[in-house]
Amino acid sequence: MQGRITEIQHSSVHDGPGLRSVVFLKGCQLRCFWCHNPETIESAEQLFFEENSCIHCGRCFELCPAHQNRDGKHIILRDKCNMCGTCVENCPSKALTICGKTVSGEEVLKDLLEDSVFYRTSGGGVTISGGDPGFQPDFAAEIMRLSQQAGIHTAIETNLCYSEETLQKLLQFCDLVMADIKHIDTAKHRIGTGRGNELILENIQRITKPLILRTPVIPGFNDDPETIRAIANFAKKQPSLLYYELLTYNPLGIAKAEKLGLNVKPLPYITPEHAEELTCAALSTGVKTYLNGKEKRENNV
Amino acid sequence: MFKLTKYADRIERLVAKKKEQVLEKQRKLGFADEDDYGYVLPPESFVKKFKFPVVDENGSFYGVNAWAKNYRALMEQHPVYIDPDDALAGRWMFMMSRMRAGYKLSLAPFPVDYSDLHADQQLYDLTHGIGKDAHFAPDYRIGLELGWGGLVKKVEDSLKIHAGDAEAEELLNAELDALCGIRAWVRHLGEAAKGEVGRINLKLVDNPPETLHEACQWIAQFNMASRTYNRDGAGGQLDEILRPYFERDLAAGKIDEEDAVFYIACLLLNDPHYYQIGGPDRYGNDRTSRISYLILEAANALKISCNLTIRVHDKMDVGLFRRGVEVLLENNLGFPRFSGDNALIKGFCRNDYPEELGRERIALGCNWMSIPGREYTLNDVVKINLMKVFEVAFNEIAEKKDFSLESLHDSYKKHSAKAALCIAKGLDFHLAHQYRNEPELLLNLLCYGPIEKGRDASHGGVEFYNMCCDGAGLAVVADSFAAIQTQVVEEKKISWEQLVETIKANFTNPGGEALRALLSSSPRFGHGGTCADLWAVTLTRDFCDAFPNNRRTPEGHLIIPGLFSWADTLRFGGTVGATPNGRRAGEPSSHGANPNPGFRKDGAATAIARAVASVQCGYGNTSPLQLELDHSFVNCEDPVGRLMALFRAHFDLGGTLINVNIVDARQLKDACVHPEKYPDLVVRVTGFTAYFIMLSPEFRDFVVKRIIA
After folding, report:
1. What is the topology classification, in CATH, of domain A2-43+100-296?
2. Cystine design at B478: which of B192, B445, B525, B547 (Cβ 3.0–4.6 Å)?
3. B577 vs A190: CA distance, rounded Å
């Protein structure tokens, strides 16, 4: 079975226990305005342009009208690009690349196995992320099935915005679920992500595997104590919950969006004091709470 | 976690003074791309008036007698350094091996002629080691047992036995001169110091140490004396060396643990010698004890440049491992380092040595292991610039127009063998003549054999001669082979002729920059699973196989290969033109056994750990892993556990030594521009740590690029 990924990142310490390899699948059900992996939103291949690597050799200008030199600046007219790949093939510095590649489950496993010893010594494994594993559930399940057969711990990072059937496919070979609740209010959830949260909240209650619930804390969207407290209260009721985690907004997606030709504005940072206030709101519900990967207690916030 | 109470103020003042001394050295001596060493500047008045008694017309000196007389004179007049806050007296101020104006080995007073080696030494940019000193390890226990007075008696007794043996008499009389100078200096320390420190130093003029405080003072005396002689910086298995004194004093109620931590802290402050803690005894049982932890806590209390190494082995005390990683994370000062027992022992045994001996071969230098007191090595001072060998081979096939990857590889192997043979002959030459150029007067005293036999450690005095040779620049060569394989042979995007023209033009020819970009985008060693990774493994094997006669010199001395560049990356790069991996002429070599910076988009720590584990030479010397971790990597739950797992996995894969920097990229970039804002910033440059402000601007730039690529 084949699927489409953007990359496999090794040595991750922020996507589950131990040292992990993260498979980023391409394609997502949601359109979160703050997305820090914008290259994984669309399922189709996309042209990626690293301006810093461009040596202005001009080959692409000669080959394709989508590439233009305007006052010494390399401009890409994306509406004229049909993703034929000619510019990529001829770019000497690899400033132009195709974001997204189609690979088989076996190929992914081969890559994952390179770090087997690190999974063993650290209690790590593979995390299927994206995009969302639910966008390519058969492929995600295949990777996890192969991984489990090879003795590798499996996890997914998911938005859970899909059918129960899809969920069950994913859970079959999954050891740990890390899922987001981006907002408890479905109308607001729809504004921020393009979809309501009904499916998500229903799916959470179906999960019997070890579960970590997380909220990306986005300025102006969900960064008020009432919202966080409400989400934490919901999280606390889930019998398989390991802990609830707040992940403060990071602007990592901005640079990647620019390379895709997208115009995304950075949001303000969440200050440490504000993160502390929100953490206290979560803790006030009695739920075990993490902030950006570290456990917080009343006395160490 | 150990908390200092009664000594906290003294430690704080001592560290503050050390920082002042570092800045003063930088102001007066300028930049230094090397270890901090711990020396202080001598008084101006002394520098003006002191003259060596035995110098030639160039102001330099050679030979046994000159070294001995000059050393004795220097030590007899050596300025006394006393700090009332310090538990130990003395600081070292001079490095005799750097006080030889106009020094040329060719002027040494013995029939020196290795001109037959000069051509190849130059052609391959060989760091041949001829005339180099130290870089093997003493066994402090010999001196701690005998004391300075006992050592004098031992030398005198040997002198009687060897009456009529000219070589022995010359050496042993020189040893007596050296000891005379040292004892005079120790006496001066004792007379100048007040109270207990004064009493201890006066006692140690003749008598061996009996307490932990005295043992630390004696070790510091030897370190300072040996540094002054020829910069020797090898320490020992510090926990086992100090344990009997510590346990005896503690049981007798003479000291508490905080006293021990303070004495050890003063020893570590005195000089950042290389010490190992933890690890197995000769039978494989763990020898971690309470004092292993206290040594770590002493270093932790100081928070200065320090070179402790923890040996990681199967039966180890995991608590010490964990505490070591905690200290590494808490301080971001690049210590401790970690060495991998399994691969080191397995490799060393491939030289037909028993495991028991392998376990005694411990981490005592930048990249190196040594058996204290029993082995002569020239570790870290003999190197082959692999990039230069590649350049010679590349030029050869270009000239012959013999264009194929196989021809290039064959030529590379042929020239590697020529370079290795030249190194081997140079080692024989050194071992035949060095004793008459510069005997190891200080290290001989703490070795088994030189005094007994009347033979210098470099000339048959010790039991084992395991001569080191490191390869430097592996990643540049591997990436160059991979670039040619990918772009020229497989994808045919560049012709051989175009490649040769572009390399010769240093990418400045028309279209050269585009070709450079193309070549640079080729697979790189470190990514994993690429042809560059395969080349790195092949080239490592080639390097080991290059040495003649099953890694023996023509005279039969064993050569143990490793991969290491020390801090010579700029120098190695400076002699080599452009290379097919897209490196411009003169740019630095890759660092040690590491991949080139930017080897992989995600910079995965697991990938570099795998890569460096795959290029171990496998005979008991190291290909160290220099790990640069961003703060974000350790800003997670249980960073200690994850780092332990990373290190353990590297060792499971065959790794031998790990040096770590944990860096804040923004801070480091700013420090590169404004080093004066960060006088406390310490980085592990390579096997050694250095104050960032002491490094030259060029080297700072190199280190920053390497760390935050």
Report:
1. TIM Barrel (3.20.20)
2. B525
3. 60
